[in-house]
Amino acid sequence: MNLLVLLIIIPVVALAISVFVHAEKVKSVILFGAIVELILCFELLREFMVERAAGNNSPYLFEIVYPWFKTWNINFHAGVDGISVSMLLLTSLVTVSAILVSWKIDNKPREFFMMLMLLTVGAIGFFISMDLIMAFFFLELSVVPKFLLIAHWGSGRKVYSATKLALMLMAGSSLILVGILLLYLKSNGSFDISVLQGLHLDNETQKLIFPLMFMGFGVFTALFPFHTWVPDGHSSAPTAGSMFLAGISMKLGGYGCIRFAAILLPEGTQYYSTAIIILSTIAIVYGAFATLMQKDIKYINAYSSVSHCGFVLLGIGMLNQTALTGAVLQMISHGLMTALFFGAIGMIYSRTHTRDVRELGGLLKIMPFIGSIYIIVGLCSLGLPGLSGFVSEMTVFMGAWKVPGTFYKAATILACASIVVTAVYILQAVAKVMLGPIKDPHFLTLTDAAWYERSASWLLMLAIIIMGVLPMWLAQMISHDTAPMAVKFLTLNP
Amino acid sequence: MNISDWLTLRIEIALAVFILLQLIIKIFDLIRSNETWLRLNIAITFLIVLLGFTGNDSGSLFGGMFISTSFIIIEKTILAFATLLVLMQSYNWLKHHQHTPEFFMLLLTALLGMFLMLSANNILLFYLGLEMATIPVAALANFDLDKQRSSEAGMKMILSSAFSSGMLLFGISIFYGITGTLTISSWQEILRPGGLEVLALIFIMTGFGFKISLVPFHLWTADVYEGSPVSITAFLSVVSKGAVSFALARFLFNGVIMMQEFWVEILFLLSIITMTVGNLFAMRQTNIKRFLAFSTVAQAGYILLGLAGDPVNAPTSVVYFILVYMFSNLAALGVVEIVSFATQKEDLDDYKGFYNSNKKLAIVLMLALFSLAGIPPTAGFFGKLFLFTSGIHSASVVWLLFASLNLVVSLYYYMRLVRMMFSENNEKPLASIQSPLLSNIALIICSAGILFIGIFGGLYDYLHQLAK
Questions:
Q1: Over the range A407-438, which residues count as b (16 or more CB within 10 Å of their CB) and which as e?
Q2: Which chain A residues are within 8 Å of B370, Cβ to Cβ?
């Protein structure tokens, strides 16, 4: 059976089984499904590398088409390139560790784990889609699980945040829907991206459709000014929910911007690239400064996500191969890093029951494992060489700097400068939370990470280190597929 | 006219015979037990559904007054199936009602009227069918005999439908004056956009607007839905609305296709106010029946979007949507009926913590709400999607944007109810409810429909084949 189909079937089967087993056993079933999924993703990576090494240069590999609605020419059309393969790896890694982190959930555990798995199905399906309607189907699939995860298992202003998140993401998808329909109309009836890529739509059409698609997906990836769901949503969500939202959900947007907006509508992308760069630079700088003011460790990470996801959009706006590759690398790096960050914060919060920086202190002595994770991931976030953050941000900057013109240089310098602010807030948070005197004597009784938390952290940490030390294979795999895009942009008339 | 042509009339003949037979049984008082009546009528309706799948489908009778195609037969079968589900759900309520036999006669007569309306190629036959489908339902709305609200609902329904029929007849008479014929299909060669034609069309659209409760003709809807017994609310919101939508599609594409440019504009205006007003009002409701009433008003706006398509896809997408909507709305109202019968509670607040006390019913209701909101993988997603894909044929970008942003608004109130059921605590939680077997079967059918119709795509393609 085709590996990609198997990737969808495994989690669906896990979901079906968990309806029938005893509530206590659901987490084991789901975890098992997620691990199988992870192994399959590595197998996919291996086969993909083998194919590419053998000289198979077709844009999409492992393609498979099943007709779905013949009347509308809607197909179940799956296929992957280097970008999707890396996204699939990210998704399955974050899924496994999110499930492990929430091992001790006892409030409606069956529903909780099923919703996590449903989110995974949505993300996996989205990343392998080559049909716009199929992609939209999987994108929408995650609306309800996200909403209920936050509204039921969240904390703080959870109902407000859940509603805000669901409505803003839904508004984004409704723009995408209109964009998809217009593409269908203008292309004389095709939803297939391999067909749409080959078409040459006229400039006016591209200028009309591009903003719909880009803004729609932009909402998912915290495009300024549609980023406001990010801080509230991430902070109110349960730990696994935040890991998912930041680690995978925001990447759906970035991936969508590349796959369904930039590739399909090159003229539109070029026409709007100035606007993209301005908005993403604002997001980067504004996000960084907003983080500086936060007192809640979860809000710190949420606002820094806005800033870091700005790099993804900046990379897309620069329209060259290095910057695009950097954008994809940044998605992966940020996904791994924030997932681990939120995981560590969740571990701290579940012990101390406070997330206020002013009330925390000296935790490194009490819980050395969690403390070290927090520090390492913080260093990754500020771009320390040897960890994944450095690799991806550096690639984006190198790509951006290559673009001639004062405007582009200025944007790059501004974005670069935000790294300094990042260092300030990360180091401040680390110093206050991990070092210094212990603020509350009750903290002395706390324990360090349990086995499930350790394994979840190791999984993500290894990925961050491997990506930081050995980035070439990944960068090569991705740049193989960003190269044709960059060529396309180069050949356009300015 | 030979036997095989008469076979196209088989459903109507069978239904008429059964109605008369029941009348005789009632006169001679042959069956006394309500339960026997119920079983008999469920069997009859089931038989009507089966009849749809047999014999010759296309032909015309009475000099072209009555036409039939496979597509029309499918429409009728869907309506009969919806009626069957309504009957199964009303088992509990009717078991103790003092006028159960009359209930069935009225209900089946309304169904017969709808069948005639769908097959009519003569505008007077069409009008007769429409009236036959409306007046019994008004009597049925009044069927909670000891409730004042119920008689108020019946009264409102009869007045508003009489008014709308007047509008419709006025428009029809102008068309007759212009064309000199009552045959709908021959209008399309004669009618061209012009002052008088436009005036007549506006009157006719107003009449249809009342029947499928488009804004601004929706004012009766919430009161009637709230006051009627839940089964009748279900019948009105699914079967009546479905039948009139099918008829509207046929009228627009068979009768006045040459005026399409003009009526698309009317549909556009009606559609965006219907969606917006329906959604905004649904948000503010506290009674679950009124809530569902306004949500169905909003759904009608999407049907109009589908009608902006080409002559093949527009009817197909509308039929598909109504089928999906039938499963979703009947599942929602089925749960409401069970709860309302067992506890007399109909407020949204009563549903807080429903998931904790009645897990299975809550899951069915949630599935129904997801489907109404158009969230995948439920069939509602595909139903709405195909209305959109059909609509792009002649709908403007503004219309598409309005429609898709309205999905966001509707998501708000559907999700609010889901969250209340799933995660809030209730000081006075509903007791664990034992639902009757037949209702359970109906709910299982509805849930299966919601879950599987969309994902396993063949059905739309099948309908599309028939519509060609």
A1: ebeebbeebeebbebbbebbeebbebbbeeee
A2: 144
